[in-house]
Hints:
about 550 residues; alpha/beta; eight-stranded mixed beta sheet; globular; binds magnesium ion
Amino acid sequence: xxxxxxxxxxxxxxxxxxxxxxxxxDLSADRSMISDSMVEKEVARYEAAIEAxxxxxxxxxxxxxxxxxxxxxxxxxTLYDGVIDKIKDEKxxxxxxxxxxxxxxxxxxxxxxxxxxxxxxxDMKDVGKRLMCKLKGVEDSALSGITxxxxxxxxxxxxxxTAVMNLxxxxxxxxxxxxxxxxxxxxxxxxxxxxxxxxxxxxxxxxMGDEIAMDAKNGTIIVNPxxxxxxxxxxxxxAFQKREKELAEISLLPAETPDGKTxxxxxxxxxxxxxKNALPHxxxxxxxxxxxxxxxxxxxxxxxxxQFAVYKEAAELLEGxxxxxxxxxxxxxxxxxxxxxxxxxxxxxxxxxxxVCLDKEDVFKTQLRALLRAGAYGNVRIMYPMIISVEELxxxxxxxxxxxxxxxxxxxxxxxxxVVGMMIETPASVVLADDFASRVGFFSIGTNDLTQYTLxxxxxxxxxxxMYNSFHPAVLxxxxxxxxxxxxxxxxxxxxxxxxSDPKALPVLLGFGLDEFSxxxxxxxxxxxxxxxxxxxxxxxxxxxxxxxAYVKEIDALLEA
Length: 561
Ligand code: PEP
Ligand code: MG
């Protein structure tokens, strides 16, 4: 028996079963060089491989959007030119040229700071594998051999793998590679299967047919569990399933405390797929649509039409419920492949978010026009990030007014009365909260940044991560001050930072009077369950005491009690 602890849960759940270890065909390229006379033949072989891959992907794209992206990638001129140049100029055979080109692009993605972008490198690799199979005339059939209930253990799993897998028999996934935003994670969450990703060394620790007990919620894997461990996991499984059933029932109930205080439970999303996955959790709306992914996934600033299509779909999917769409929040740790931000000493204090938008007015106006137009199709609200001054807010609103005028002149349909709000994520915006509150339709507190800027603690620096604490009295008082200022002006105050889904924070935020809690959709039912067993009157008392604490340890003690 061997126990492995894993940090990253991709999709929660508890299961036991036999391991099915995926063995892939050898797709490494032959390293021999070609002569001049062979160049034409190799080019033709590569082009035939593209055609064959395109034919497969066109069929697959009908049922899964991910393959639509692969279909585009397989025809991408940069990839094509990269491979052909190597065949012609470096006299490498088609397989080797493909391998080197794909590795180069995958490495560029892998180097990016943003996890989401890093995972796009796996799309590139997946397309590369498909082309390689075509060139080598082999089938990747490892996954089609599953004929009994198993836990699939693999180096990595690609979306194309689900197409050949008999999902009826799949109990869960464990992969050596991948992050929580990788396709295997998204896939597992969509299929409601437990999954653990990024499990280093798992292929050495597990052999085909080994018994596995996995708890994807707490991140433990036991290989060949003994009787006691099996009994323990059987109990865990039962408890988990019972809890899931309870949560599914709770998700249908109102977000209300036993003494009648209601709040809104919203979801944070990054694309349409996320919205579709969030809806079954019975959310009250979208509290943060991070539009930067739309920009980061592209190789150009997305056009007004491209953006309009996405925002319109979002509005329609929500059927009249609020969709708060944040304008571009780029810079800091989020880069664009097609725009050079230049090197900065302090990127988080630098050229980012609204600062970029007010500098690149055309980019900003394109987005604002798309948002205004989408506003005609549902309850779209606009939210500006990282505001530090009333001047910035005024300038953003001036540009919005210009966009409205343009659309009016063009006779285009749009929402004249679109509600505009702002994120509170800088200490400056807290200090000026009264001034802002009279000028916007709502506030949403971004605790991820508000914590880092209030405490001057970099949110991504592991060395000082113990100091990054949203329960610090300065952060909590900034939150309270924001809520009070918002309410004094009669506007709604929400929160879309991670703190909104922290069960320990719930009574304090509730007691402070937070109106809307926005979080990853998977956390909504747990928070709702917690809320439904929390007394608002007691939460208010607790929040009053917490707001007066000067020491972190006093706050901790109050919350423990
Ligand atoms: C925040 O800062 O809390 C927030 C929600 O924005 P992001 O995490 O995208 O910076
Ligand atoms: Mg932020």
